[in-house]
Write the structure tokens for this entry.
Amino acid sequence: MSGKMDRRSFVKAGAALGAMAAFPVIGCNSSKAGEGDLPKYSGAAIKGSDKIKVGLIGCGGRGTGAATNAMNGCNNVELVAVADLFQDKLDSVESRLKSQLKGQEKFGFGGKESQINIQHKFCGFDAYKKLCETDVDVVIDACPPAFRTPHAEAIVNAGKHAFLEKPACIDITQMRKMREISALADKKGLSIMVGTQRHYNRGYQEAIERVKNGDIGEIVAAQCYWNSAGYVGHSQHDAMEKQGLLKGLSPDDMEYQIRNWFSFIWASGDHIVEQHVHNIDVVLWAMGYKLPVEVNGMGGRSTDLPVMTYGDRFSHFAIDYDMGDGVHIASYCRQDPNTAGHVMERVIGTKGIMETHEWGKQRITGAKAWESPYKNTPPSVIMEHKALYDALKEGKRINALPDLITSTGVGIAGRMSAFSGKRFKYGWMVEKSQEDLMPKQMAFVKNPLPGVPVPGKYQLV
Ligand SMILES: NC(=O)c1ccc[n+]([C@@H]2O[C@H](COP(=O)([O-])OP(=O)(O)OC[C@H]3O[C@@H](n4cnc5c(N)ncnc54)[C@H](O)[C@@H]3O)[C@@H](O)[C@H]2O)c1
């Protein structure tokens, strides 16, 4: 089939409509998510002169990072359109892209400034819609999590392939919508790559492959951590205040909340969903994305950073996920200034233990002990983009969104349990919960918020 369709017409997403049956879907929820399963680093640039036109929605730190990762992952990528809610972000986007490219030169992928050829800049709440109306082939969405769902819907409706940053969504209402969007992408033959980059770290790939091959025996427990030594929104807030970007705004202004999205529950999903999703995703990956039976969590806000100025988020969560048959996942995340950092995943089996660190070792202990031999591998944030463009080039489809929706949903369940102080069945959340955190009006209006959730009082809906 791929031989009958030239690459350009495949990349032109509309041409892929109805091609679903012909193209194998490469997902992360594969029984062997390692060698032979995921596209591999070859270092080769796409041949020929075809350009792959890319648009970026959300020109912040990760957006400019992801766009340059895409240029490095595929030398035929050309960034032609950008969209952001704020003009100041658009004004500085080219210079920030160039400095990101410079920073990535050391990896030797050959991304060049000539790949930045911005012909369209869109600003405002509907900027994403306008970008989707251009002739871009692929859209990167790196906006705050609350906007992922409406943006993903517009991208897929417009027939574009997507790179969506994590998390997939912020609440259960959006989660249901994301499942529909993912199914529509499948129907239209569109590819969706997501920003859980550990899937493209060679050490992680092999560790998980070994777990799936039974090297640690039967899984009996797992633990995962993202304990940070700082509250993520702290320095961003202070930097914006210094630049005068928050002048005249108060914390109940929508603009304040979106600029400080890291600190607000509705905009970020809280850090268990926004950041810790990476670690939850790894243990679920090892378990074949099995869903929890029951969720029992706790958490609170222990930082003395003033509430509302620095948002309404919890600073720490500890969640017990009952996976059935006596197997539990313990998940911990914290963002308190000057506390101990600890970011990793551990899966415990009857014959050994898998331990993985994104910035450290990946290893297995026990009878089939192993330690990752992959040193100085290309950054996984480039490899995930390379995998997307390699797949497009080879006429294969990737849809990594279903697994990200699952991991995000498990994070959401942990947050709901910690906020409410209640234990509940995961199935109840999926089927019955009506949680909907999105503000009803999306404009620069006042958006008063109830404050930090109080366990025992916060109502599960
Ligand atoms: N995969 C990773 O390791 C990783 C790392 C960092 C961030 N992220 C994710 O990337 C996303 C962005 O994070 P960031 O650090 O770049 O944040 P950021 O604040 O630096 O950037 C967000 C950008 O989106 C813009 N924006 C906000 N609302 C918008 C809207 N409605 N329409 C268009 N633009 C809008 C903002 O103005 C800003 O430029 C988040 O979901 C975050 O979780 C992923």
